[in-house]
Amino acid sequence: MAQPTAIATVDLTGNAAKKDLKVLETGRPVAGYSNDDALKAKHVAVTGGKPYFRFPPEPNGFLHIGHAKSMNLNFGSALAHGGKCYLRYDDTNPESEEQIYIDAIEEMARWMGWSPDWVTYSSDYFDELYEFAIRLIKDGKAYVDHSTGEEVKKQREERVDSPYRNRPIEESLLLFEHMRQGRYEEGAATLRLKMDMQSDNPNMRDIIAYRIKYNEHPHIKDKWCVYPSYDYTHCLIDSLENIDYSLCTLEFETRRESYFWLLEQLEMWRPHVWEFSRLNVTGSLLSKRKINVLVKKGIVRGFDDPRLLTLAGMRRRGYTPRAINKFCDLVGITRNMNVIQINMLENSLREDLDEITARRLLIMDPVKVVIDNWKGEKDVECPNHPRNTEFGNRIVKFTDTFYIDRSDFHEEDNNSKFYGVAPGPRAVGLKYSGNIVCKSFERDAAGNVSVIHADIDFERAVKPKTNISWVSAVHGVPVELRHYTYLLKDDKAATDPDFLKYIDEKSEEVLRGVVEPGVEQLKVFESIQAERFGYYVADSDSKPGKFVMNRVISLKEDKEKGGK
C-alpha cells in the first residue's frame, strides 16, 4: 500500500507565506506605534534580525479551517523568511479553557506540518503582567473600579468617567492587592486602565485590565484569582516575546490604539500589527458556540465529525495537510471580506489525493454475480496507480462469485447511455479481468435483485464500452461506508441565531459495502482511491470485526451538488 506524503516533505512555503514582509508593516498608524533606536537595538540583540511571528489561539475549542489560514500565514512566513514562530496559548479565561483543547491545538498544529520554535502560554507571564499593572497604578495610568458590568458599559457608551477613576494611587494599590488575595466576589472589583474616555474609539475608553475569577486554570491551577484581559495581555506578551509581526483578523482593528497605548506607557517594543479578513467557507459552520450546540445535541458525531471544518473533522474526513495549506495559499491574505466556495477547498484535496493514494477495488452497494461457465479462482495483477509505476502492482484474487455495484446493473437494457450490466448479449468489462454477459438474475423475498448469473470471457473477444469494479465474494471484506454531503442547507446558518433549522439531517448516509482484502489493514486516517467511486479514508471507529471508511470526496466535481 502506498503511503500518503509524509508531513516532513510537504512544501509549506506557499504564496501566503512568501508575502513581502514590507506589506505587513503598512497597518494604520496610530499614536505610539513606532520604536525608537534604543528599542530597535534591544530587539535585534535578541532576534538577531530574524522575523518573529506567533500563532495565539485561545484553548477554548478545537482549531478549524480559519486557524489553518492563520497558521499558514504565521508559521509559513517564518519558514519562508528564515524566522521563528511561537505557538502561544492565549489562556486568560479559565472558565472556558480545558486541557483537552490545549492538547488538541498542538496536535493539530503539528499535524498540519508546523513545528513551533517555542510553545508558550499567556499564563507563563502572569507574574510579569501583574508587575506591569502595579507600575501602571503607580504612574497614575490604572485604577481599581467597583462599577458593575452594566455601569461600566453605560460609562463607556456615554463617555462618562467612573466615580472611582481618580481615587488615590495608594488606595488602588491596596485594593488591587486585596483583589489578588481573593477578598472580593467576582465582579465586585476590576482594574481599569486610565486611557481616554472621550475617544471616538470605544476600545480607548478605560478598558478592563484585570478581573476576578474563581476558576481553576488548566495550566497554572489555582495560583491566581485575578486574570488579565485579552486587551491587556496580548500586546504585552507580543512585546515580551519580541514578536515582529502581530497578525490578526479584522475585528481586532479597533484595538490598535489600545495595543500601542499600553506599550507606549510601559516603554516596550512595538511589533508591526496587520489585520486580515476572516476565512469564511460556504456550507460550513465555524462558530465555536454553534459547533458546541451540534455536539451537545448529538447532531454530529463530535468535534471531529467529518462534516465539520474543524481540523480534527477534516483529518477524519480524509483531508491532508498539504491540501489544506495549498487551499490557504490559493485563498491568499486580504483585508477584503469574502466567502470562499468550498469547491476550491475540495479541488485542492482532490488534486492532492490523486497523486498520493493507491487504487483499490470497492463496492458501495453490493449485488452478487455468479459465473456459470467457469468455476474456481485466479490471480489478477492490478496496478496500484495508473500513472505512477513507483506504486507498483498487486495481486487480487478473482473468483467465480463476486460483487458488483447495484448502480452498474439494470433489469432491462433500454437506456442507450447505460453501458453497465443488463440481460442480453452486451459484454461488460471487469477491471483487470474479463468480459461478462448477463444471462439472468434472481430476486429476494422483498423483490430486490439478489443474484446475477453471467458468463465470462477472459480473452475479451469483444471490446467493452466500459469496465466496472468488482470484489470477490470469497475474499472481500465487509466495510461500513459513511457518505457525507454538506451539513448546511443554507449558508444563512452562519448568521441566523436559529441556525438549527438549516441543518441537513440527511447529510450522513451509512452503507454496507465490500472492499478488496488488505484495505482493512489501513491505518486510521490513511486513504485510498476506490476506483470509479471516489476517495475513502479509514475511520477512527474501526475495530476488529468492524471496518469503517468515510468517503472523502468524489473523483470529479458534481456541478449540481457542489462537489460531493
TrEMBL record:
KW Acetylation (keyword) present: no
Stretches assigned to the Glutamyl/glutaminyl-tRNA synthetase class Ib catalytic domain: 54-354
Nucleotide-binding among keywords: yes
GO cellular component: cytosol
Enzyme class: ligase
Chain ranges of the tRNA synthetases class I (E and Q) anti-codon binding domain: 468-539
Protein name per UniProt: glutamine--tRNA ligase
Source taxonomy: Eukaryota, Discoba, Euglenozoa, Kinetoplastea, Metakinetoplastina
